[in-house]
Write a structure and sequence with these properties.
Blueprint lengths: L18 H28 L12 E6 L3 E5 L2 E5 L2 E5 L22 H12 L7 H9 L8 H19 L8 E11 L8 E10 L4 E9 L4 H13 L8 E4 L5 H8 L4 E4 L1 H10 L3 H15 L4 H15 L4 H8 L2 H4 L10 H4 L3 H16 L6 H16 L11 H6 L3 E2 L2 E2 L6
Parallel strand pairs: 5-8, 8-9
Antiparallel strand pairs: 1-4, 2-3, 5-6, 6-7, 10-11
Helix pairs in contact: 2-14, 4-14, 5-6, 7-8, 7-10, 8-9, 13-14
Length: 416
């Protein structure tokens, strides 16, 4: 008879505490302890020369704080923080708080970011404890519906603080604008969020502005742009990218009159194809790609003329949508070719908000307009960490200097 005849049942929580994970967790604990003791040694060394009147050292080790678990992506890790004792009698007592483990830290930053993503992905607040126990282990504590309620309040507070930040020292060469609709449950109308993403003089993309709007009206966009200027954005962007249907463009011409315009090819393609029968859309889409993927502006104009001639008779409304923004669709040829992939569409905004729309459809119960806006802000700030810098960053100083580009290539300046 075989000795091992009993198979262990799986953990009811669904969390697999395998040996490999246990080794990783133990290694993480030891690394944390090493980092803490190294930082403590630096502190003790800095004050090693200070003595009391009786010759005793002013700063000495004094045991440990009570052990606490810090929740991480690989489950809870127990940590013990050493204490120090300052024997001096002044008011400026020396204490030790390791930078790796701030006071009262109970969750790693990765876990803090996991919570809003789960919420945004459709996990209801009532299901959080079960979901996180499956991900982080059965000892995942303090991650309840109340945690999400507190987080939503923190998101809104963070959004309000972010809205007031000073932009006086910043310069943005490109801006992307879009008005994105999603419908919180129980709301009478879809919520329109006006979003502007900017690329600064170092090629870094970041969320520049975001607010509630009224149907993408010119007035709403004007208020948003004027607020950017009020907070210090004095130098006008070189180029703005967005959908042709926005009230944004009228407002842009009033607030930043010298900023050039580039229509988003993704939006334009969808608008044109929606005015054509399904049977023709695949073929027409290929011909539209021939326009904006041409290597030169002359090649784009040739492909443009072909599209108009091919589809203009039967589908004049579709062609009209294309023709009305012809010049603004081809502006990108006057900028470095390395930047074309970035400035032909407003896709960074649209793709990020796809998750917001998914979340608002999955939300159980009412989602207020304030919560919807705060949630969208949190998502954008999380997504911003993954945004790529502009290619061809060496071209940005040339754009600032006003050097001419033709078909994406720098033009030699005539001698004075």
């Amino acid at each position: 008879m075989r000795e091992n005849t009993i198979s262990p049942l799986p953990d009811p929580s669904g969390f697999s505490s395998d040996a490999f994970t246990a080794v990783i967790r133990d290694g993480a604990r030891k690394l944390i302890e090493q980092a803490i003791h190294a930082e403590l040694a630096t502190l003790m060394s800095a004050f090693s020369g200070e003595r009391l009147m009786d010759g005793r050292a002013r700063l000495v080790r004094h045991g440990h704080l009570p052990e606490r678990d810090v929740m991480t992506g690989i489950g809870p890790i127990p940590v013990k923080v050493p204490r120090v004792r300052d024997r001096g009698h002044g008011d400026d007592k020396i204490t030790f708080t390791p930078s790796l483990l701030p006071r009262y830290l109970r969750k790693a930053k990765s876990v803090e970011e996991l919570l809003p993503w789960l919420y945004l992905k459709g996990v209801s607040t009532g299901d959080f404890t079960e979901a996180l126990a499956a991900l982080l282990g059965p000892n995942a504590k303090g991650l309840s519906a109340k945690t999400i309620t507190r987080l939503k309040a923190d998101w809104w507070q963070g959004y309000e603080t972010w809205q007031k930040r000073d932009l006086g020292s910043r310069r943005f060469l490109y801006i992307w604008a879009d008005g994105v609709y999603f419908k919180p449950r129980m709301a009478e109308e879809k919520q329109c969020v006006l979003v502007i993403v900017g690329a600064d003089e170092y090629g870094r993309k970041e969320l520049l502005a975001m607010t509630d709007g009224f149907r993408e009206s010119t007035q709403s966009w004007r208020e948003l742009l004027l607020d950017l200027k009020r907070r210090g954005l004095k130098q006008e962007p070189k180029l703005a990218i967005g959908d042709g249907a926005l009230g944004f463009w009228t407002a842009l011409r009033e607030v930043f009159a010298t900023t050039r315009e580039q229509r988003c090819w993704v939006h334009k393609t969808m608008n044109v194809l929606n005015a054509m029968p399904q049977s023709m859309q695949a073929k027409a889409k290929g011909h539209l790609h021939d326009i904006w993927q041409a290597e030169t502006k002359a090649g784009a104009n040739t492909a443009f003329a072909f599209f108009v001639e091919t589809y203009g008779v039967k589908w004049d409304k579709a062609v009209a949508k294309l023709v009305k923004d012809r010049d603004a669709l081809l502006t990108f040829y006057d900028y470095p070719a390395e930047h074309w992939k970035h400035i032909r569409t407003s896709n960074p905004i649209e793709s990020t908000f796809a998750t917001v729309r998914h979340r608002t459809k999955r939300t159980k119960g009412c989602l207020s307009r304030e919560t919807g806006l705060a949630m969208a802000f949190k998502l954008m700030m999380s997504a911003q960490k993954q945004w790529r810098k502009l290619d061809g960053q060496n071209r940005l100083p040339e754009i600032i200097q006003g050097i001419e580009f033709r078909d994406g290539i720098r033009q030699l300046q005539a001698a004075a």
